[in-house]
Structure to design on (86 residues):
């Protein structure tokens, strides 16, 4: 949340699932339990992901942090999300 380029991602893997915590700067922040689309570095949809943690922007210097749950093999591929239709 304090990285000036907002380029740091936290990764965690366990039992075939991965968790990715990433900065999210859009106004409509998803809620815990929401389904979103995981995107790769080029903006291509990888598939569905689930929001499992949200750190609100007001607690983090104006940038929200989201943690999404994805298949473990997406840990080094997923780098953004899309809310709604891809």
């Amino acid at each position: 949340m304090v990285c000036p380029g907002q380029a740091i991602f936290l990764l965690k893997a366990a039992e075939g699932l991965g968790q990715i915590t990433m900065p999210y700067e859009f106004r409509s922040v998803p809620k815990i339990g929401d389904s979103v689309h995981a995107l790769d570095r080029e903006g291509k949809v990888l598939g569905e992901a689930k929001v499992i943690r949200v750190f609100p922007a007001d607690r983090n210097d104006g940038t929200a942090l989201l943690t999404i749950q994805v298949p473990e093999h997406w840990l080094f591929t997923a780098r953004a999300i899309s809310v709604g239709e891809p």
Q: What stands out?
A: DSSP finds no helices and six strands in the chain. Residues 11 and 20 are 5 Å apart (CA to CA). The chain has one domain: 1-52+66-86.
